[in-house]
Amino acid sequence: MSIDFKDKVAIVTGAGGGLGREYALELARRGAKVVVNDLGGARDGTGHSDMALEVVKEIEAMGGEAMSNGGSVTEYDQMEKMVADAKAKWGRIDILINNAGVLRDKTFAKMTPDDFEFVVKVHLTGSAFVTKACWETFREQGYGRILMTASSTGLFGNFGQANYGAAKLGLAGLTKTLQLEGAKYNIRVNSLSPVAGTRMTEDLFPEEAFKLFDPVNVVPAALYLVSEDAPTNAIVGAGAGGFHSSWVVMNDAVWLPDGERTVEGFAARWDDISDFSNLIAPQSGAEQSGAILKAMQKVTGTG
Ligand code: NAD
Questions:
Q1: Hey, which of 18, 33, 52, 174 would disulfide with 68, CB 3.0 to 4.6 Å?
Q2: Cα 99 to ligand 1 centre (Å)
Q3: Could you tell me the pLDDT band of residue 282, with boundaries at 50, 70 and 90?
């Protein structure tokens, strides 16, 4: 079964480099017309450049169709204009990959309120803004595929990334409500938690891991999750060639009868209330990567 994106129009935010560029190139290879958005700033979100234009040139050089957009996902009017420009040129929008992102890592003790607010604004508010700018079009068309970019930090936690983690779990939450609201309009919404060697992780990964986690290995999951037959409400992890799903889970509720429904009664049953014996719940983002590598070890005997 081959999966193509012929006649589909896709917007990929933050597609001037890293993961977004790989998504844009593969969508174009498979026939999509692609809006390559990127502000072209530094990793911390400062400055801007023509990164998006370079990727458009690459797509055109291989015979594909693309347009560049240098707007910021944090500016709603710029995102409305991006959508209007794409519709003026190609008549519709089918796919949105919310991928743009920045990092301002610090321990919470050292993090300024500005660093917190800025990172949440780019990832969470930015993804909501671009999605909002596309939403009415998706509803009118009775078709839309949206991918949010979550992260192991949001799902499981990572030292020094309070701002980033808050935004990333927020995106999984946004996914859960939008997939409900979009269902009757054939709008499907999923989250992807990638692990990839990009400029975002270049000083965080050891050299070997950087190579192993080539961003191209995330593309199969990303493109399936925005394809015609995509599921909805999935949270998928991908990196290095390993793929998994994550769930928000709970255990069986414990009923406290009237006489026991007190603070002390709750305390007495805490062991049962917090019993997760049958579930897997990673305690850090590193465990997600570790689990991926374990799967690889099982199959290849290496790593
Ligand atoms: P990257 O830095 O190469 O890509 C992010 C892109 O977003 C950059 O090109 C940047 O210019 C662009 N961008 C930043 N602010 C923008 C704005 N306001 N408007 C438009 N574009 C903007 O890093 P990447 O690793 O490819 O990251 C892609 C996504 O994947 C991000 O959301 C990131 O948080 C997420 N992610 C990456 C990893 C990983 O291991 N690399 C892990 C978890 C999540």
A1: 52
A2: 6
A3: very low
